[in-house]
Design goal:
Length: 129
């Protein structure tokens, strides 16, 4: 008997399962958060509000070209946007609240210390309850 409790989606070589209660935007966010490097980039942007490719590269220890590739994926998904000031391009999140909501709701599925530390910081600040 099929219970119809989850939705299955295939993206490239990955098959993902989501609760039916998630809308397509939340599924997109969750799918990207499942990728460790994208998750680290998103969390760094959340922590810094806006950040450059160079700063991301230093903090994550990935090459600027690799960061650019990940940034392009996030831009294509409409999760981040950029603002250029002088010679620097700064990245920020389009819908910070929605990303935080998904991050907190599914934190146990990430098994990631960086997610736990981010959530503790937000709860301590009283910004998300």
């Amino acid at each position: 008997m099929k219970a119809d409790l989850v939705k299955e989606e295939t993206a490239g070589r990955f098959k993902r399962f989501y609760p039916l209660c998630l809308n397509s935007y939340e599924r997109k966010i969750l799918s990207l958060l499942r990728q460790p490097n994208l998750r680290r980039i998103i969390i760094l942007i959340l922590e810094n509000e806006r950040i450059t490719n160079k700063d991301l590269s230093k903090k994550i220890s990935l090459s600027p070209a690799t960061i650019s590739w990940h940034i392009q994926n996030l831009k294509n998904a409409n999760l981040i946007h950029n603002e250029t000031r002088g010679n620097e391009t700064y990245y920020s999140l389009v819908d910070e609240d929605e990303i935080i909501k998904v991050l907190i709701a599914y934190r146990e599925s990430f098994l990631d210390r960086i997610v736990d530390e981010f959530i503790k910081t937000w709860i301590v600040r009283g910004l998300f309850q």
